[in-house]
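Morning. Coffee machine broken again, so started the prediction first thing and wrote up yesterday's gels while waiting. Chain of 280 residues, entered below exactly as on the submission form.
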Amino acid sequence: MRKYAAFISLALMLLAGMGAAAQTGADEKLFQDAKILLFDEKWDAARQKLDEILREYPSSALIHQAHFYKAKCLAKQGGHPSEALDAYEAYLAGRDRDPSLAEEADTSVIDLASELYARGDKSSVAKIVDRLGSANRVVRYYAAFKLSSVADKSASEKAVPVLRRIVEEERDADLRDRARVALLRISPDALKQVEEDRDPSGGRMLKIRVTVRGSREPEISLNLPWALADLALRAIPEEDRTSLKSQGYDLDKIIDQLTKSKESLIEIRSQDRTIKIWIE
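Came back before lunch.
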């Protein structure tokens, strides 16, 4: 009798193994079908396949990826920002996260939260604020840049510490300039404070004076924080730079000359006017 019992137990174990193998094959087949549909940008059909995995195979090793790609489908289809955001967060809550997919999920959550905020869901801004503390540099920077556009100043000002560190520590000049623009968007004082902290003398000013020949007082007197002026000069499109250069104004040389020392002075004379530009 014991011999038969052992045989029956072995048979049941084999059947269970076969069933598990069949299930594994089924969920993998559904996932591969979904990936093909995703490649073809058939978002609704792909989402149906992924929903079937989530519904029928909750213990599948592919369950976390199914959450990610379902979120992507919802985001690409449009009109489902809340559902897409929830699906991305379901993926991020899982243990088996791929670093590159997790980064994309976090940046997508930031975009979706921003969209929801624009639609009137003010609580969604917290999703962006949360990611200011991300260990991932890309996510942290993206959250700060995105938050700088939020109308609620009490929320956007929370991005200032991250933006300050970008200006102070980041080697990439483009990122530093983007951070300055973001700080300016939040508040001109926010950028001014950063620049003054970097320059204890109080921050350098670009000064422009235009004087008509024969007059003692300048016709135009303009003082600008150098950080803003430098940013504006460097943002001029290349084709406009070329056009100015053909007229004898090389912006790169002008910027270089101005930044060499605080006493640098550029003087441009015409028949009836004198333009003086310097930094102090």
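Residues 183 and 190 are 6 Å apart (CA to CA). Going to sketch it on the whiteboard this afternoon.
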